[in-house]
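The data layer described in this paper is built around a simple, fixed record for each protein. Such a record has a labelled line for the sequence and another for the backbone structure tokens. For reference, a complete record is included directly beneath this paragraph.
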Amino acid sequence: MTSTSTNTGETGLFETRFSIAAAALAGLCVLVAILFAWTGYQGEELLLVGTEMNIVNGMSGFMTAMFVAVVALVAAVYMEPGFDH
């Protein structure tokens, strides 16, 4: 019989510094996406920039920020630990 002794790096979402930072970035990007969608829907000025928003600009910013959030969340979940382990 053959046996294998391989270890898969089963790390959780909040067990490494990289995973914690990527999850925090994903959460921050979700908040930014909601801000873009809300200001675009209301037709107000974007905070700290002063750019007049409309619904098209708001949805464009929303989709871009949500894309970054999804990529960061996938990286936080599936990234294997590096040299620090």
